[in-house]
Write a structure and sequence with these properties.
By secondary structure, the chain is mainly alpha-helical. The protein contains 6 helices and 2 strands; from the N terminus they run ββαααααα. InterPro entries: Hpre_diP_synt_I, Hpre_diP_synth_I.
């Protein structure tokens, strides 16, 4: 939590704040890398920045994951020059859908679920948020749902790969402590 120092106008940030900022910065770098990668089909990207959100969720909890995700979306939008463009709103809708499913997943039994399960849920939530916004605003036509099979396949593959990578990160971070 950020506090004002009583003797001056200096803003003091906690270690938790620094950790969130570091994770958000990593997420922004991964989002920039993601944007630079060629896409086989419009709308299909690996979602590398979601690894950082999953890491924040596992290590710091849902609220931290929300902050990291929102800061990453805003920061990437600023750096890519896409702030408040349709691409920004699609990213925000995807992030919101992902975070919504991750919030609901907290109520699921812990047994049988791992960061890989959460990654798959987040990928599907991301896709759902983006498709709902696209259908409601950008492409107000039923034909948008024809994109669902290839996009859902891509979301499943990338969600699985990102989940596996996040699991490796979490295990290596646990080994270091």
């Amino acid at each position: 939590m950020i506090h004002w120092h009583s003797d001056s106008r200096e803003l003091l940030a906690s270690n938790h704040d620094h950790h969130l900022a570091s994770l958000a910065a990593c997420g922004i770098v991964l989002a920039l890398l993601d944007a630079a990668l060629p896409s086989p089909l419009p709308g299909i990207k690996p979602g590398l920045a979601n690894i950082v959100t999953l890491y924040a969720l596992a290590r710091l909890g849902w609220r931290a994951a929300v902050w990291v995700s929102l800061l990453r979306i805003l920061g990437a939008g600023l750096l890519l020059g896409s702030l408040f463009t349709p691409g920004f709103w699609l990213s925000l809708a995807g992030g919101g859908g992902s975070l919504l499913l991750l919030a609901l997943a907290q109520w699921l039994p812990r047994r049988g679920f791992s960061v890989i399960s959460y990654s798959l849920l987040a990928a599907c939530g991301h896709l759902g948020g983006q498709l709902l916004l696209a259908r409601g605003w950008l492409i107000p036509h039923q034909g948008v749902w024809l994109l669902l099979p290839p996009l859902l396949t891509a979301a499943t593959v990338t969600g699985l790969l990102n989940g596996l990578f996040t699991l490796q990160l979490l295990e290596s971070a646990t080994d270091e402590t």
